[in-house]
From TrEMBL:
<feature type="region of interest" description="Disordered">
    <location>
        <begin position="101"/>
        <end position="121"/>
    </location>
</feature>
<dbReference type="Pfam" id="PF12836">
    <property type="entry name" value="HHH_3"/>
</dbReference>
<feature type="compositionally biased region" description="Low complexity">
    <location>
        <begin position="101"/>
        <end position="113"/>
    </location>
</feature>
<dbReference type="GO" id="GO:0015628">
    <property type="term" value="P:protein secretion by the type II secretion system"/>
</dbReference>
<dbReference type="InterPro" id="IPR010994">
    <property type="entry name" value="RuvA_2-like"/>
</dbReference>
<feature type="signal peptide">
    <location>
        <begin position="1"/>
        <end position="20"/>
    </location>
</feature>
<dbReference type="InterPro" id="IPR051675">
    <property type="entry name" value="Endo/Exo/Phosphatase_dom_1"/>
</dbReference>
<dbReference type="GO" id="GO:0015627">
    <property type="term" value="C:type II protein secretion system complex"/>
</dbReference>
<keyword id="KW-0732">Signal</keyword>
<protein>
    <recommendedName>
        <fullName>Competence protein ComEA</fullName>
    </recommendedName>
</protein>
Length: 121
């Protein structure tokens, strides 16, 4: 029973994460810092670059313009909920939905391999 509750909580958290995308072109410092992997210095660097040169076109543009954000780092941040423009928000929702589907399949497999048995006292 505890396992079912835990799996349900994990699925709800993953589902909620799909709607928690933060658009780098509209977010303030607090919203950026809410993304795992972005601290105060990186959030300030993103905001300063956006203020100086305008919005980011795509993830590659973000990685190129902000020092310390390479391609792999930007991909990881996108997986954590960072979106770059409207297309980025749609892509993040797809990534989160596929992760949720994979999690549901894994929990279904786990419940098949470990059946529970009711014991009367």
């Amino acid at each position: 029973m505890f396992r079912k509750i835990l799996v349900t909580a994990a699925m709800l958290a993953a589902f909620g994460h799909a709607y928690a995308a933060v658009d780098v072109n509209t977010a303030n410092e607090d919203a950026l810092r809410g993304i795992k992997g972005i601290g105060p210095a990186k959030a300030k660097a993103i905001l300063d670059e956006r203020a100086a040169h305008g919005p980011f076109k795509d993830p590659a543009d973000l990685g190129k313009r902000v020092k310390g954000l390479g391609g792999h780092t930007v991909e990881r941040l996108q997986a954590e909920g960072l979106a770059v423009g409207p297309a980025g928000a749609a892509a993040n929702a797809q990534v989160a939905a596929s992760a949720q589907t994979k999690g549901a399949a894994a929990s279904a497999d786990a419940s098949k391999s470990n059946p529970s048995v009711a014991v009367k006292k």
